Amino acid sequence: MKDIVRQLLDTRSHIYRGPAAPRPARAAEEGGCGVTGFACTEPLAGRFIYEPSAQMRNRGNGKGGGIAAVGLTPEQMGVPRGVLDEAYLLQIALIDPGCHADLERRFVLPNFDVLLSVRQPHLDDYRDVPGLEVRPPDVHRYVVRPKPRVLDDFARGSGLESLEPRDLEDEFVWRNSYRINDEYYASLGEKRAFVLSHGRDLLVFKLVGYAEQNVEYYRLRDFKAHAWIAHQRYPTKGRVWHPGGAHPFVGVNEALVHNGDFANYHSVCEYLRQRNVRQQFLTDTEVSAQLFDLWDRVYKYPLEYIIEALAPTSELDFDELPPAKQEVYRQIQAAHIHASPDGPWFFIIARSRPDLGQVQLLGITDTAMLRPQVFALSDNGDVQIGLICSEQQAIDATLRSLAREDARFCPVADRTWNARGGSSSDGGAFIFSVDADGNGGRRLSCADKFGRPVELRTGRVRCDLLTPEEDSRPAPEALRELVSRYLQKGDVEALWSHLLDLPTWSPGDLKRFCGLVVEGADTAKARMTAVRLLTLLRDRRFDTGDKRRAGVIQVADRSLEALFDSAPLFGRPASRYWRRVDRATRGLLVPPRAGEEVLVVDSEGFPAEGDDCDAVLLREAYQAGWRRFIVYRLRGQRFHGSGFGPGTDGVRIDLYGSTGDYTSSGMDGMEIHIHGNAQDQVAQIAKGGRLVIHGDVGQTFMYGAKGGEVFVLGNAAGRPLINAVGSPRVVINGTCLDFLAESFMAGDPLTGGGFVVLNGMEFDARARLVPQRTPYPGSNLFSLASGGAIYIRDPGRRIVERQLNGGGIAPIDDRDWSLILPYLEENEALFGIRVRDLLTVDGRERAPRDVYRKVSAVRLSVLAGSKAS
Amino acid sequence: MTTTIVDAVIPRGSPLPEPPARRPRGEPSRAVRPAPERYRNPIGKYRVTRSARCDGCGLCVEACAYGVHLRPEAYALVGRPEDHRCIGPSCVQGGDSCIDRCPQQALSLRLNPNVECLGDPRWTADLILSTWHQAATGHRPPPHLEYRRGASGGGFDRLRFRFEVPGTAPCRFPRLEGGAVDLGLDLNRRDDGRPQVHIDIPVYGGGMSFGSVSIHTILAKARAAAAWNSFSCTGEGGYPDRLRPYDDHMITQVATGLFGVREETIQRVRIVEFKYAQGAKPGLGGHLLGDKNTPAVARMRGAVPGNSLFSPFPFHSVYSVEDHKKHLDWIKEVNPRCLVSVKVSTPTDVDMVAVGSWYAGAHIIHLDGGYGGTGAAPDIAKKNIAMPVEYAIPKVHKFLSAEGIRDRVTLVASGGIRTAHDCLKAIALGADGVVIGTAEMVALGCVRCACCESGRGCPRGIATTDPELVGLVDPDWATQRLVNLHNAWREEMVDVLGRLGLASVRELRGRSDLLRLLPD
């Protein structure tokens, strides 16, 4: 440790009163929560963090919610840009406004030159915010710089003269806030006031309630910032909560929110206390922010090293690092492993770096990826946005609310992905940075832990955003006739082959074409055909040429919604083929009448769970005799397909929009199509039937499954098929983060047992199938499995024994191939991924045994009975 | 070799009524019927030895009121003493015992050496023998057996009801007679529109999977639960079809391995239990070692026979309280009429776990303390990790009370509930009711030899999946044993509550003032 760093930490004793208390006990127990955040090249109003927060309400319990805004606008702050970059925003929560004068007299006026002192406006009566039960603190904000003389005294008194001026100033501000909290919040137990934030260009608000209530109460709907983060808290201890325990927590120029909890809270505290960092709020999140602050501001570690200290690289991933990196990482791990949070956690950090003119948004996941996390990037040319959330539905909600107000935003992200915690591939962390582009504007970039950029591979021409004249051009009559004819004939193929010409179309052609499809869908057959065609347009990976794929999907989605909206609600005159039900008309649900085949459910407004949710409606409709369902405008609602009971052959459910957790859990016989990415806990304990996921799927997919045929177009996140038994048969065209088929017990696949085909493929910019870097990057494949098999496309022999933890790897034989071929053919029919292309390696078609390998069970002594051992 | 001859010619057990006649299945009744030990030589506390000096005078037959000495009609010799019925030294002190009256001084009395190797301080030989007695007769054991508590020197064994401690001021209330005491419990206190579930005794049976115990054991537990309008639990090995007649008295357990959990098994019951952890081995999932994973067990679970089945810890889909809520929401969606129970072990922050579970929507919070029995738990884990349930119950009870939600949730405790007295003490400490496991196994003849998990499993045919050993337990007999045990417990609980002047077991909850902790 450098002397000056030691000196800085040692002299913090000046601000501590009395000896260190014995190891602190956590004041609150909290497990999961909902976290969300975004960073944008444009400053965005607070109402856009409102939407995703409200969407994830069911991840909190209303006992704590907070938000942070980073990258503010001078106009709204009432100070010039220069001041915003240079001065500290000391933001104080006054639970008891009576202590304000005393606090100001003792801790603000003597220490700082106050450039601005304002009370944050808020609603007159907190009870005007529905559901808000505790009066939020008054918030007072000072724009300050430490007085030069005070700073000099501080430097001399602490022996910190050699510290860089800015570092000295930061430390002074930090210590001053510590003392305020000590005086008014932590030690006396009276909890009268505390510092919300004190960084530059950064503000934090928190209250006892839900995160989005901050936006309402503090009148932030129109308050703009480049980056926002929000947190829904779910604490479970105590009857009285204080806003001080809510997230975000701050270092100096960063605000951190956290989902999860640490098993080694005491160890981390001990580590911090050895470095003379004491705790005041006694939550996991406080120490997380302290770790980050210590490593970033005091030790001055590069971000990569901070991430390594938080989430160390291990196992196979460590071996795959370059030797030079291994050497550094080994040192980091040796020094800081005790501070590495153990357990499920996911951090979102927003920070300002005014000296670099930069705003950053970071998401970091734990090494076992035990908390849900989704990253997304949307590049609209002149405006770019990066998002990090607990659930994809929060991303969808943010982009949807943005697109509603500002046509430049597309409601569909260009790319969504998961991080692989503690890995050599991305390090489990991604960083969005908003920088000045040199032309007075801003530009967003995204990189992983190692600084490798995330690139978008898509066309730029937008089919969803048209110039007025392009938009108003009528569709050619001939086309109208053609579309109508094929719709009536039910010829999806013909229409689809027409659509494949999209690269040559002008931007407005797609919208016109889809408009004709919607219009022409006026008979049962035409409606069915139109749905199939537009669904294919949204799901199928095909070359869109210069057209931006997100825009194509947006047009398809909008057309599908228009089409579904045309189905008559209950209580209206019938039309052929389908019937629609929404929240308002759910009480009118009756059995299908003659000619009514499909029940269309508009999910908007339904709660995500509980007796009133649309999954319950689906079950009731099934009991009333409906068998075909289309569910659309999904906003994260859960449990679709659950609760139907056994033997549901002949049921088909198509889900459009943001599907929720536990979709198709327990399915037994039915067929479910998820048009888009699926969430967590999908197909848990599934027993039979067919599930098709036209995208990625989240955590613990098919946990404890007994059977069923499942096709996944993209990747699975962590821990798919854990503890699966019986005969599940799964094709995953992408790969998995880790822990695939742990404790798999699915018998012998050749005699009716289960298996997974893992193709490890992805699509390139022109929608061509290409292999991923490795078919399976994780260190744990098929661990402790006693049955079933994994057929893995691995022509390069990338999978090695040490990834297996128990299984054996062997070439496939003819019996294996004839077992999996029908599934690959089905996969081809569903996704257009040709078996031939899968067998093609480096441009040449190979024999199956040269492409696929089989991982299967070997008898393990740890699993054997006493007779065998 | 003489004994063999004697055994061969003398019919045993004649003074007691005949074993119960087979009753039609599917109609369990709570009527007490004798269900004597199923082995030829039942184990008693004392050994009475007859030496060769015996001349067959038969005075001992006259002397013994307990049926130790028998001489059937037309037999010249007195049979080998049925010494499991002997009440021991207290009888000798009267001066009129068989020992005293034997003119040949052919009889001698001592502690049965088998008893010295039976049990341990928590489950003493007396407790095992008295549980057998209760299961055999349906009533309170004789006074020579300490049936109320063990000898561990801590926890329940150091707690007494105030009337048991000399010098304690008497209760203010008049003693109530048995008929007026109510032992029933309502399990749904959430007022959430889901059905009420009532049990007639404040006790139900814990989860034991098909795989860990035999189908006969499972059936007996289920039938006894049906007879007493209470519950038994599937454990995590699936839901055998033979349990279908008892759906209304079964709890489907959803445990971390999700073995055998299907929608229909969730939908057919009135209570679904999430097993997050077991008190015997917090931090570990279920274990079923390879030997017991027979083809039948593997078929039920969809697994591969012969391989050990380890359930993960924790639920892979639940790493936080909001995941937990989602998990409960899922089960409630699948079965809109069920109550949800959450079984957790007792870590130091068990109070917060309980509150979190309530907020997540649980109807029943089930605390499983560190003395829970399980054959397959590693020795290092047993009793060493989780908190004893005696500490956990008041901790959670007080915390729920302070939170203002105590009356909106049912708190049940397990993990070391051996007797009716333990049950009432747990309730006085703050639980609403208890869940028992080992006590039921002992009632079926378990000697606590701890050979449950490996090889063919239980030598007494209780916790085994071996097709041959399973046959050692007749389901009708086993059902009657459990029915009898519950009756004996009920009588005991009614007696104690009556002495405390309480008209209902619900009034006892949290009345720790009625307990006394003995000094060291």
Protein described:
The complex is a heterodimer of chains A (869) and B (520). Chain A is built from 24 helices and 33 strands. The longest helix of chain A has 22 residues, at 165-186. Chain A is globular. Chain A has 869 residues and is of the alpha/beta class. Chain B has 520 residues and is an alpha/beta fold. Chain B folds into two domains: 1-30 and 46-111, Alpha-Beta Plaits (2-Layer Sandwich); 164-517, Alpha-Beta Barrel (TIM Barrel). Chain B has helices at 2-9, 59-63, 89-93, 98-101, 113-116, 125-137, 215-227, 263-267, 295-301, 321-334, 350-360, 389-403, 420-429, 438-443, 467-470, 475-499; strands at residues 46-50, 107-111, 159-161, 185-186, 198-199, 203-205, 232-233, 250-255, 271-275, 287-288, 309-310, 339-345, 364-368, 410-414, 433-436, 515-517. In chain B, the strands form five sheets. An eight-stranded parallel sheet of chain B has the order 6-15-14-13-12-9-8-7. In chain B, strands 1-2 form a two-stranded antiparallel sheet. Chain B is globular and about 80 Å long. Residues 1-24 of chain B have low confidence and may be disordered. Classes of the chains: A alpha/beta (869), B alpha/beta (520).
Main beta-sheet annotation of chain B? 8 strands, parallel
CATH architecture of the largest domain in chain B: Alpha-Beta Barrel
Helix content, binned percent of chain B? 25-40%
Q: Domain count of chain A, please report it.
A: 3
Quick one: which chains have the greatest interface? A-B, 72 and 56 residues
CATH class of the largest domain in chain B: Alpha Beta
Strand portion of chain B, in percent?
A: 5-15%
The structure class of chain B reads alpha/beta
Query: How confident is the prediction overall: mean pLDDT of chain A?
Result: 93
Strand tally of chain B: 16
CATH class call of the largest domain in chain A: Alpha Beta
Radius of gyration of chain B: 24 Å
Number of strands of chain A: 33
Q: Which descriptor suits the 3D outline of chain A?
A: globular
